[in-house]
Every structure is written in C-alpha cells, then in structure tokens.
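yo

u said u wanted the structure for the complex thing, so here. seqs first:
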Amino acid sequence: GAVVSQHPSWVICKSGTSVKIECRSLDFQATTMFWYRQFPKQSLMLMATSNEGSKATYEQGVEKDKFLINHASLTLSTLTVTSAHPEDSSFYICSATPREQYFGPGTRLTVT
Amino acid sequence: AQKITQTQPGMFVQEKEAVTLDCTYDTSDQSYGLFWYKQPSSGEMIFLIYQGSYDEQNATEGRYSLNFQKARKSANLVISASQLGDSAMYFCAMREGSSTLGRLYFGRGTQLTVWP
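structre next:
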C-alpha cells in the first residue's frame, strides 16, 4: 500500500494566486521530507529538503520566498507556491525518510 | 558532472523478450544506493528495485534484476519477459552516503515501449 500521500492530485490556478500542496507520511514519522519538481518529459529535480521543526533547505536556483515549505509535524509537510506564474506549471512530488525510496502520487499544477 | 547517466532516450522491445536499460553513476562515496523507478503516464513514481554498494549479489525483484558492476560504475536494469504494461518511463537514481536521509539524484530516464 501507499506510504506517502499527496493532496491535491491536480490543481489549476490563476496566475498570481497561491496554491498549497500537502505531503503526508502514512503510518510512519518522517523527520525529513523531500520535494521534487518534474517538468514535462524531464527528470525529477530536488527543490528542497524539509525538516520537521526547522527551516527547509533549498537547492540552488529555487526561490525560497516563492516556494514556501512548512514541515509542521512528523507526518505533514506543505509546499505553497506563492504568486504562481505559468512557468510554475509542473509536476510536484514528495518523498519522506526513512522510507524515501517511496514517492507520493504527485501533484500536477497548471497555472493559467 | 552528471551523477546518473542514462544514455538511451528510448528503447523498444517485443512482448515476452528481455530488455536491458543502461545506467552509469558517478560518486566518490564508498557507500551509496542505487534505485530504479517506473513512471507510467499517470506520473506516479513506482519503486522497482534497490542495490546497495556493499551488496555482493545483484538485486532481483520478480521480473526485474539489477546488473551491478561496481568497477564499471554501472547499474543496468534487466526486465525479463516484457509485458505491454511495462511501457513507461524508467529512471535510475542514486543516494550517496550510508544515511537514509540522503536525497536522490535521478538520470534523464529511458522511455520503454513494449510492442506485441
């Protein structure tokens, strides 16, 4: 069965609005969660590492003020895309330690 | 330098035949892990198989096996008896270090098409 869930599975939003994506670990506590982004026909690229109770660590080139990450509990991390633009349209997917080989089902974001 | 290299953008195989998807990796760590994932058009990343750098035997999971050649830094995925449902994108990935808290580095993927 699934070990990580994501919500929503897909979302369409208007340019300039914000959208929140949730990543939950099921049946285990996740001290660290990883957020990846995948553009069409490309590979997965790590955006940020989310640690429970502390600030997230962002990869080079990822705007931390645009992609807000909150790891508020040992089972939940949220990614908020603020002031979304069409170029933020992508597939966002998470994983969680200690079972980081398993990914959530992903969230497909379309910004119009 | 790329940590994971997949040189085959696309592969074709006939149903019931075996196919090998290539993956080479680059790391200076002695301890690392190698993963293969299947991504169908739905987008979900399906974990297929794992090989640790200290594992002496090649990993196998059902029809999937990992041909691990440490000296050549290659970790090829072999799918035996291909099925139509195997058509998907396949990604090779690596985690460096022995900690389970490591991020994964992914290759560019190989699009596998199985034809009847």
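The CA atoms of residues 7 and 22 of chain B lie 7 Å apart. Chain B has a mean pLDDT of 95.
cya
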